[in-house]
Amino acid sequence: MQTSDKAHQELIQAWRAQARSKPWLTLSFAAIVLVILILLLISVYQGLHLAHFNYAVSGGMAGFIATALGSMMIYFTRTISLRTQDSLLGFAAGMMLAASAFSLILPGIEAAQEILDQRFLAAAIVVLGLGLGTVMMLGLDYFTPHQQASAVLCGVECQRLSGIWLFVFAIALHNLPEGMAIGISFTHGDLQIGLPLTLAIAIQDIPEGFAVALALRSAGLTSTKAFLIGAATGLLEPLGAILGFTMSSSIVLAYPLSMGLAAGAMIFVVCHEVIPETHRNGYQSAATSGLMLGFAVMMFLDTALG
Questions:
Q1: Is 128 exposed, middle or buried (0-12, 13-18, 19+ CB in 10 A)?
Q2: Of 7, 46, 178, 228, which has the highest C-beta tally within 10 A?
Q3: CA-CA distances (angstroms) from residue 72 to 48, 61, 211, 235, 237?
């Protein structure tokens, strides 16, 4: 027990050292969290539009169900080739990038232009949101456990297992901004924006849920435990949807700003987590082809059918 307490104290000290080593990121991340909390309080005080709120929660639940379906695939297969995994994740990454552009950034600029009646300022608001979303994800990535933290907690003998759990944690963490994007897209009850974005996120949640369950089973867990934990990572989707909807419903300019924030967070996740994961096994061409196909499919769905 004393060893565990000492390890956690060392971990806390390591996090404090991290915060001191990058004060600009620490202060920026804290400011963004404060702004989000203020917007949430304003929205709660004003009251939520329950009809649109139900859309947001339903969209978040769709992401959770898709994650659970992906995890359930662990029962029907013993293995899947790395090429296929990378192709599927690349396809999901392409859909996410297209959804960020056509379901968040462009509608965000249009919404801001309707409010400000000035194209330049409208684009600036969304660009500011992109920056906030990027800094938010940089902060989450910087202040959450990484390999050095796992070494403090469990030592060299469990590095492989801790690495798998860190992968699971990363997947669960980036489900939060995906859920926020869904909630934000339904703020005004516009199904032409919300449905394509929700579809894109739900589709990419399926291979992610399967990847988590597969990683856990490779670590020695039973298929049932791997499925349950993999499905549980999707619970942050409805939570993020509630957070995003509430935040963007506060003041008029919060909606386009939140659209930019969600887009920045999603693009960061794709570039920082998904694409590097698809390129580390030597199947870059298959992954990139999948990405281009996913982008094309999502662009068609969003522009032709949206």
A1: middle
A2: 178
A3: 35, 16, 11, 15, 18
pLDDT digits (tens, 9 = 90+) for 179-209: 888 999 898 888 888 888 888 888 878 877 8
In a 3-state reduction of DSSP, which class is residue 284?
helix
The structure tokens 């600029």 sit at 109
Angle, helix 236-248 to helix 159-185, in steps of 10 degrees: 40
In angstroms, how far apart are the furthest CA atoms of the chain? Answer: 62
Q: What is the pTM of this model?
A: 0.76
Helix, coil or strand: residue 103: helix
**How far apart are the C-alpha atoms of 208 and 68, rounded to whole Å?**
10
| Mean pLDDT value across residues 90-118 | 88
Q: To 10 degrees, the CA torsion angle through 278, 266, 187, 292?
A: -50
Encoded tokens for 272? 């920082």
SS3 letters across 233-265:
HHHHHHHHHHHHHHHHCCCCCHHHHHHHHHHHH
